[in-house]
What we know:
The chain is α/β, with parallel strands linked by helices.
Amino acid sequence: MTERLELIQGDITHVTADAIVNAANSSLGGGGGVDGAIHRAAGRELLAECLTLGRCPTGQARITKGYRLPAAHVIHAVGPVWQGGSHGEDALLASCYRSAFALMEKHGLRTVAFPSISTGVYGFPIARAAPIALREIRAALERRPELERVTVVLFSEADLKVYQQALGA
Ligand code: ADP
């Protein structure tokens, strides 16, 4: 199972996979951080498709095509904004990962790359987010043998180290 999970440092817009996951906001209208990078790399058609989907509640996800990205699809997952930790943030973050895997299953997708959802502008402490993300990814890999590869793409070396430590813990 662990050999189907990889942690890398890099830019998720360069990853070739059946799907990459976007840390989106509820409007699905694009934004900063990884969201902005994905929209810039995919081109304007991505925004056009997103705007047909309506709002996406926190903790849920929607799927679109990948357009000019090397990834075939984008799964837009809406993570929680950190509000101190006692407002359901952990459960909502876990729900993002589960919703993304449910869409993978529905669409028959086998390879996926995730960014570190909610740990940028949304302020979720990465040391708390990493074990939640990895727990949900491991659970999906255990349940679904058809999943070939799950990659977590960390933007900085410091973030990669946090995930590596959480993976070993
Ligand atoms: P959120 O609003 O969910 O916090 P952000 O985009 O602000 O989303 O940050 C989520 C994570 O994505 C952060 O760790 C940020 O450093 C990282 N990130 C930003 N750009 C990229 C990129 N091109 N590829 C991978 N990760 C990225």
